Amino acid sequence: MKRAHGFYSVPYVLWLALFVIAPLVLIVYQSFFNISGQFTFDNYKLYLSSGTYLRMTLNSVWYALLITALTLLISYPTAYWLSQTKHKQLWLLLIILPTWINLLLKAYAFIGIFSQGGSVNRFLQFFGFGAHQLLFTNTSFILVAAYIEIPFMILPIFNAIDELKPSLLNASKDLGATNWQTFSKVVFPLTLDGVKAGVQAVFIPSLSLFMLTRLIGGNKVITLGTAIEEHFLVTQNWGMGSTIGVVLIIAMIAIMFLTGERKKRGR
Amino acid sequence: MKRFRWQNIYLALVFLVLYIPIFYLIFYSFSQGHNMNHFSGFTWAHYQELFQDQRMIEIVLDTLLVALLSSLLATIIGLLGALVIHRVKKPMWKNTLLSLNNILMVSPDVIIGASFLIFFTFLGFKLGFGSVLLSHIAFSIPIVVLMVLPKLNEMNTSLVDAARDLGATQPQVFSRVVLPYIAPGIFAGFFMAFTYSLDDFAVTFFVTGNGFETLAVEIYARARQGISLEINALSALMFLFSLVLVAGYYVLNQYNSSKKGRKRRMEANHNR
Amino acid sequence: MAEPIITFQHVYKRYDDTVALGDIDFELEQGKFYTLLGPSGCGKTTILRILAGFTEASEGKVTFKGQQINRVPANQRQINTVFQDYALFPHLNVFDNVAFGLTLKRTPKKDIKRRVLEALKSVRLAGYEDREISELSGGQQQRVAIARAIVNEPQVLLLDEPLSALDAKLRTAMQVELRQLQRRLGITFLFVTHDQGEALAMSDEIFVMSDGKILQQGSPVDIYDEPINHFVADFIGESNIVKGRMVADYQVQFVGKQFECSDAGIPAHEPIEVVLRPEDLVLTDVAKGKLTVVVDTQVFRGNLYEILSHDADGNQWLIHAVHKAKVGQEVGIYFEPEDIHVMRFGESEEEFDARLEQYEGDD
């Protein structure tokens, strides 16, 4: 029995060692090497002393915050009202369905929608606002990112609301609370965990969505993810890329610490 | 009653926003023009173009192959992993294993991609089909574990005892009791792994090198060059494919939940 | 006496730092109905699990028909279990659940069918073979669990609180049915329960357990009438227990008075405890009573009046009376000398048995 135990655990343990632990160790290791392969602390020194990198990081965090806030603002009422509909599981499935469409295709759709002659501009022109440069702006980046992340925010909040026992709401009303009081004093506090899970599920990817900054943001916004991609695949400065990677990992840990355990990003 | 209507308008708007881009893409896939600005007459031309695009068809097949192989292997390894974690009894070890398991679930794609790229380069592993397949297996394993583990935990230990009591050997206990019991979890895990693989862009982008491409990487490359309605045609087909997949998964879920419903009824009887 | 089918010899079971079983020693004979009775956590289920082979004894010897079986795995023992939660396989229907063990043994299909149907018939579930487990009521699931165990023709059947999930009426019916089934099959049943009524109703022999030890073993009547200590007396049925002192053989003193009793072999002046069962106390006039008490509360229970009263010393007396009394009224209590049961502090079962033999031999 003991022997069989050892035998069947080999593939999984091998995976843990090779694809979880080793890559993490390697990215930290790599961050101490410069572009010509010499051991150095320069990457960190440069990161901390150069305004460019710090500004980029702050920018990235700021945009991630904006995206998360916008997503939350749209998602909470949606999840709340969704939970009150008939056939709510079916509606929820329809909310999740778009996440099965490849991210790239959705981004691609917005290239068309936001383009100079695209629908939004024609819509604006129709109302006499005139055509605007929509694509390759910060706003378009935030909007598209929020569009992509909305289902990932709705899902955990919906689940939290759905788990609420109806008797709690009845109890609250029975004790004299108005609808709004019931919401603010009972429903919202009890669904806060869902909100936290949603924030985690949205904030971290928002720091690292590099394809969107390229396709929609027109490289105006540089996120941590874009910077890493740039250093690894364009300038080939893996050391600096890894350093930014380590920063991103630290940011991720900080977010998880702030919002409690991250639930899995369910679909 | 009036408030209720406002809520529905809001929900309808959200649904509209979620689906407009998708239908926008599909709509223009039938347009005779060359951009997504004006619909200029119905045509199947972009679909014909797509089906004659030897390179695109090859990439689609490669993508499906990677998805199928990686999800199968990830399911096997993830199943073994769930069994390992389930077997561990000390809470500290169990939590450590679970945290390690979840690292790839919570890591941003760029980090996974970059660190795998370093890893493969470090080993001198040639980038291409092999590295993409290995990466997809790697990032799909934890979701399989997370799908199977609750089923294992939910299974009453007395079922295993009962099987042994009735004369089942260890392999028989596994094949006749445990496996049928956790099968829905395994299917769900496989399905999730499959969609993860189809969906992935960032990790593949990092570890694919020059010789091998998946659909997402190809779309990215073409989208950067501007609009081509052939991609619209492709996205329409992929949307259909997703619908079929989701329908399949929904059926599987229904099957699961009806099973759960039965279990609940059983518990209710039990408590009566 | 026939050779015992199962023996436990000085069996201990320890988990990291706790002792679940301490020096368990007993024998089971072929074809009898045994019950392990005790509060939850007393170790009765651990004995069952050791016997079934789900866990191993830390120390001591377990034998089956004279052969040591400590290390024989569960799937090779001629012992089957009915689980507390039934542990029916949810993915198999009734027939396949019952056939599970036979299928593993590669029994020919024809035999499997015959034996499964027979087993279902013996638990009065003929015609249910195609049902899903989820379609059955708790009582029916219970019977499937029994059929699944007995179809393998085990020498010993272990039952782990199998009736605890049933409602009171069904439970009583199942008690009778189980007892009949055991007589018909003629195999040994080892039944685990925390319900003393269940134990008294079904068993040939009862083992009363507490804190990982067997306190007393005996027939239901023995255990009820001659509890060895305070714990057993209290656990088996309701009882009035008061402190007293032995005066001489057949003479005991409690609540300040001296009474004739049927116990002997205890040194004079030794402090003891006295048990009087509430149903042995008869309400009478103060003049005719051996004790005088004042009625505090009275509850009608259908078949009797449950009367709580107190004597002049403040001792509480529980009386099960056929006729009612008046609250606040002073009444007399009468009882026979053999209704008094004397218990010594710290007397072991062996000492108790030895003393009983000694003075009963005197008669």
TrEMBL record, chain A:
ABC transmembrane type-1 domain ranges (all copies): 57-259
CDD domains: TM_PBP2 (cd06261)
Keyword Cell membrane listed: yes
Membrane topology reported for the UniProt record: Multi-pass membrane protein
InterPro entries per the UniProt record, alphabetical: MetI-like, MetI-like_sf
PANTHER family: INNER MEMBRANE ABC TRANSPORTER PERMEASE PROTEIN YDCU-RELATED, INNER MEMBRANE ABC TRANSPORTER PERMEASE PROTEIN YDCU-RELATED-RELATED
PROSITE patterns reported in the protein's UniProt record: ABC_TM1 (PS50928)
One GO cellular component term: plasma membrane
Family the UniProt entry places it in: Belongs to the binding-protein-dependent transport system permease family. CysTW subfamily.
Keyword Transport attributed: yes
Name this protein carries in UniProt: Spermidine putrescine ABC transporter, membrane-spanning subunit
Localisation: Cell membrane
Superkingdom: Bacteria
Gene3D superfamilies linked to this entry: MetI-like
Keywords recorded for this protein, A-Z: Cell membrane, Membrane, Transmembrane, Transmembrane helix, Transport
Main location class: membrane
Bilayer-spanning residue ranges: 12-32, 61-83, 90-114, 134-158, 197-217, 237-258
Pfam families: BPD_transp_1 (PF00528)
GO biological process: transmembrane transport
SUPFAM superfamilies: MetI-like (SSF161098)
Organism (species): Loigolactobacillus bifermentans DSM 20003
TrEMBL record, chain B:
GO terms under biological process: transmembrane transport
Pfam families in UniProt: BPD_transp_1
Chief localisation class: membrane
A GO CC term attached to the entry: plasma membrane
Protein topology in the membrane: Multi-pass membrane protein
Keywords for this protein: Cell membrane, Membrane, Transmembrane, Transmembrane helix, Transport
Domain ABC transmembrane type-1: 60-252
Compartment annotation: Cell membrane
InterPro entries hit by this protein: Bact_Polyamine_Transport, MetI-like, MetI-like_sf
PROSITE patterns according to UniProt: ABC_TM1 (PS50928)
Transmembrane domains' residue ranges: 9-30, 64-85, 97-123, 129-152, 173-195, 233-252
Family: Belongs to the binding-protein-dependent transport system permease family. CysTW subfamily.
UniProt-recorded name of the protein: Binding--dependent transport system inner membrane component family protein
Organism: Loigolactobacillus bifermentans DSM 20003
TrEMBL record, chain C:
Top enzyme class: translocase
Reaction catalyzed: ATP + H2O + polyamine-[polyamine-binding protein]Side 1 = ADP + phosphate + polyamineSide 2 + [polyamine-binding protein]Side 1
Gene3D superfamilies linked: 2.40.50.100, P-loop containing nucleotide triphosphate hydrolases
Gene Ontology MF term list: ABC-type putrescine transporter activity; ATP binding; ATP hydrolysis activity
UniProt KW keywords: ATP-binding, Cell membrane, Membrane, Nucleotide-binding, Translocase, Transport
Statement: the UniProt record of this protein carries the keyword RNA-binding: no
Domain ABC transporter: 6-236
Any one GO cellular component localisation term in the record: ATP-binding cassette (ABC) transporter complex
Statement: the UniProt record of this protein carries the keyword Translocase: yes
CDD domains, per the entry: ABC_PotA_N
PROSITE patterns associated with the record: ABC_TRANSPORTER_1, ABC_TRANSPORTER_2
E.C. number: 7.6.2.11
Family: Belongs to the ABC transporter superfamily. Spermidine/putrescine importer (TC 3.A.1.11.1) family.
Summary of the function given for this chain in its UniProt record: Part of the ABC transporter complex PotABCD involved in spermidine/putrescine import. Responsible for energy coupling to the transport system.
Complex formation: The complex is composed of two ATP-binding proteins (PotA), two transmembrane proteins (PotB and PotC) and a solute-binding protein (PotD).
Protein name: Spermidine/putrescine import ATP-binding protein PotA
